[in-house]
């Protein structure tokens, strides 16, 4: 009976993951471009067997910082549309979810019209855009500090110029494997954050037409998560929060993501709808994947 609702959630999760993947791929392309530029600059400064010195260190740091600033400008331009895309998806999906649930559980179908302009103009959205830009800057600083560390260590230990170049630009260096991992996590998490804020804002808009609406945390990924799975199916008032526990640390969030690479979603929900979904087994702690035969 509620299979259409679960299918809708899975579909919008797939769309958001596609959005995250596309943005991550572009960010990684920019990162690889930066690595190639730094490698070329390093190799062009001195013979491979020569010893690294302080003058070259300062020169490489200045050129690396310049390259990271270029990366930041490109990233900010590339991802300026993330909030817009996320809000559009969230508005569309929130209306769809409410109508599907209303048609399934209410005697009269629930039809919700959300003013996209109001959602997109919300101050939270503008704050989010600034938040993403500051994250890119923090990421760039992490990369630069990684380069600094490799250069200083190489100079202090008397490594050859070629060895220092390899330590910076190899797969194990700050512009290599670690950098790609951090870059992908940055983009995926920030895109998920953009979607979470937009979804939450659209639920607030929907509540103006359905006063009894609350919000529910949904873990709709196929992989287990010790942080998020205990929250699956739990409801809050729209101004309420969930407690995220990671080790000994806790923090309060109004909506997903609960941690880096989190794929959970917040959805609009009425208490009567939740009870019926619970009876059907869709809100068990092991998530909606537990009953694939019902989908």
Task: Give a short account of the largest sheet.
Answer: 3 strands, antiparallel
User: What series of H and E elements makes up the topology?
Assistant: HHHHHHHEEEEEH
Q: Percent of residues in beta strands?
A: 5-15%
Tally of distinct domains: 1
Global mean pLDDT = 84
**Cα-to-Cα separation, first versus last residue:** 9 Å
Question: What structural class results from the helix and strand content?
Answer: mainly alpha
Question: Helix count, per DSSP?
Answer: 8
Number of strands: 5
How would you describe the shape?
Answer: elongated
Helix content: 55-70%
- Sheet with the most strands: spatial strand order: 2-1-5
Low-confidence stretches: 287-295
How many whole angstroms does the radius of gyration measure?
23 Å
Question: What's a concise summary of this model?
Answer:
This protein is mainly alpha-helical. It has helices at 3-43, 54-78, 82-105, 116-120, 123-156, 161-169, 177-207, 271-280, and strands at 214-218, 235-236, 242-246, 249-253, 265-269.
Descriptive report:
The protein has helices at residues 3-43, 54-78, 82-105, 116-120, 123-156, 161-169, 177-207, 271-280, and strands spanning 214-218, 235-236, 242-246, 249-253, 265-269. It is mainly alpha-helical. The protein has one domain (3-212). A hairpin with a 2-residue loop joins strand 3 (242-246) and strand 4 (249-253). It contains eight helices and five strands.
């Amino acid at each position: 009976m509620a299979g259409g609702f679960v299918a809708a959630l899975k579909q919008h999760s797939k769309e958001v993951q596609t959005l995250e993947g596309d943005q991550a791929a572009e960010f990684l392309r920019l990162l690889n471009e930066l690595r190639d530029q730094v490698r070329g600059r390093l190799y062009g400064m001195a013979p491979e067997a020569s010893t690294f010195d302080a003058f070259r260190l300062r020169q490489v740091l200045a050129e690396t910082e310049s390259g990271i600033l270029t990366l930041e400008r490109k990233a900010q331009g590339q991802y300026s549309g993330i909030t817009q895309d996320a809000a559009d998806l969230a508005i569309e999906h929130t209306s769809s979810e409410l109508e599907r649930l209303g048609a399934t559980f209410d005697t009269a179908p629930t039809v919700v019209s959300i003013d996209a302009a109001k959602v997109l103009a919300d101050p939270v959205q503008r704050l989010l855009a600034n938040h993403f830009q500051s994250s890119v800057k923090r990421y760039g600083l992490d990369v630069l500090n990684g380069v600094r560390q490799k250069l200083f260590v190489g100079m202090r230990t008397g490594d050859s110029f070629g060895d220092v170049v390899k330590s910076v630009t190899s797969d194990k260096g700050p512009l290599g494997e670690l950098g790609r991992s951090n870059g992908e996590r940055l983009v995926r998490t920030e895109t998920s954050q953009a979607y979470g804020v937009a979804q939450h804002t659209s639920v607030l808009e929907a509540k103006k037409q359905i006063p009894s609406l609350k919000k529910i945390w949904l873990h709709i990924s196929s992989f287990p998560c010790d942080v998020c799975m205990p929250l699956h199916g739990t409801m809050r008032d729209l101004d309420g929060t969930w407690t995220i526990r990671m080790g000994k640390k806790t923090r309060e969030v109004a909506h997903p993501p609960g941690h880096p690479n989190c794929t959970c979603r917040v959805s609009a929900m009425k208490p009567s709808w939740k009870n019926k979904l619970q009876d059907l087994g869709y809100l068990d702690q092991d998530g909606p994947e537990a009953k694939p035969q019902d989908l």
